[in-house]
Amino acid sequence: MIQINSFNRSRFLYTKAFIVFFLLLAEATSGEAQQKPSVVVEDFKPASTNQAGSEYPQVNSEGRVRVRIKAPEANNVQLNINGVKYPLTKSSDGVWMGDSNPLDEGNHYYGLVIDGADVPDPGSTYIFGSGAWRNDIEIPARDQDFYAMKNVAHGQLREIFYYGNASQSIRHCFVYTPPDYDKDLTKRYPVLYLLHGYREGESGWGNQGHAGLIMDNLLAEAKAKPFIIVMENAGTTGDLSKRGGLAGFDFGVFEHILLEDVIPYIDTNFRTMADQAHRALAGLSMGGMQTKRITLANLNTF
Amino acid sequence: MIQINSFNRSRFLYTKAFIVFFLLLAEATSGEAQQKPSVVVEDFKPASTNQAGSEYPQVNSEGRVRVRIKAPEANNVQLNINGVKYPLTKSSDGVWMGDSNPLDEGNHYYGLVIDGADVPDPGSTYIFGSGAWRNDIEIPARDQDFYAMKNVAHGQLREIFYYGNASQSIRHCFVYTPPDYDKDLTKRYPVLYLLHGYREGESGWGNQGHAGLIMDNLLAEAKAKPFIIVMENAGTTGDLSKRGGLAGFDFGVFEHILLEDVIPYIDTNFRTMADQAHRALAGLSMGGMQTKRITLANLNTF
Lengths: 302, 302
Fold this sequence. Notes:
2 copies of one chain form a homodimer. Chain A is of the alpha+beta class. Chain A has helices at 6-29, 31-35, 211-220, 251-269, 286-297, and strands at residues 45-46, 58-59, 65-70, 77-81, 84-87, 89-90, 95-99, 106-114, 117-119, 126-129, 132-139, 156-164, 169-177, 191-195, 228-231, 279-283. Chain A has 2 domains: 45-141, Immunoglobulin-like (Sandwich), CATH 2.60.40; 146-297, Rossmann fold (3-Layer(aba) Sandwich). Helix content of chain A is 23%, strand content 27%. The longest helix of chain A is centred in the first third of the chain and has 24 residues, at 6-29. Chains A and B meet through strand 8, strand 9, strand 11 and strand 12 of A and strand 8, strand 9, strand 11 and strand 12 of B. Strand 12 of chain A pairs antiparallel with strand 12 of chain B, so a sheet runs across the interface.
């Protein structure tokens, strides 16, 4: 036993305080401590974004992602969620596993890093986002019911190819038609042109954005009136980074394409209400900037 | 110099013969020799199946695939084309590259192996084939013109969700409608139900099968009359391998689904000619086996 006199006790308390301080400092500055909290709720389930039959990746009730990959010869494997990297641990059978911190609910882009190589996780499906086809993972949201797949009448998501004179190329877009579109062939519909965000594409709203499911559910509960949604490519995929990124992007190019290619094609090939009162433009993030610029410059169109 | 007398010359020839024999044996049994032929035509170009803007993978005029992946800490990286593995070579900047042997023209499934981990190549896009969403690569075919993207009138590839009573689940299928489908709303069309192969899915004919482009091009040249194509999931994805593979697969299940869910849904929701004379069934590989069984058992339907 150590006997503590008043002097020694005081020094002991100082020493103890310093040790606690440095332990806290070490914990605060250590990636390991940030990335591997001591308590993980062990209620992981396969994510809804998994490939059919894939047991991993999994998500728990805290919103943590757990990944698993067999890489028997690898030295270092990480989970990369939007640039935040979490270390994985190797077991004796060559399988690497690891968890993320709890994530915000909703959709996250992610991948694996195997010995320095950024690669997709073969357990997940693929969507286009952040400039490439890549993995996403869905953290269940408290309000996920509004975009859930239900036994209601479903609209169609139609993949369209057509030649655009303004863009001088074959364009690719997706068009959502509401469930009753092919029932009453005399009916005409308002149109929403729905733009994606920076470095996303024409498939984003239909895939990870669940635009069709949201509309189907709203219509089933009579919370919306049916309309057509047109999801085009607003021109920021591919080599935008070489053109100076978002700051160097000329919004005028897509304005011409939208007015001269997209809207005329849609009004010719779908049963639209082809006037200003029944045509809307909206967008996410950069699509919102495009919406502001294009609508205010074309108040007779939108 | 070595002087060769008759005895020595004989021994020399035997030795030489043995050396040649063992070199040939080594070449015949070495994966390295088989996989790295000495002459490679250096006219590689990015594949048509690449992600937008990706320089790699590439294909040359011999049909070789060249892949590239940055994996600075990796010990061993391979290109895996349908199970045939080709070694990659690392350069000083941590980039691995390598070529395959010449491949048959058309579509091939492939991936990378990084230190024992089977992962996709992030340079390519993804299709569903061989039981999972994975990479494919297109080796240009001599007759590629018939499925090329052209400035012709294009049909629509429609993604459909509907509840099936026989399958007691929400079903997912793709329907190709010909370019004139939304022009004359009184016209009705024959229907082809087009089945996929073993461990493929409802997206295969529309994606890597280019069914829509083939029809668009045939119709543009008046080589076909317009019809609807329905591409459903014939039930062999997911956990089929756990059910005993193809041999253990009960074709009767999909027969019920096709007759009780799929055909009634399509005849109700599309302008079909809903009789035996205008309804056909066809399929690739296992889909051909299903076609034979289901049509012969239902001669009044197909």
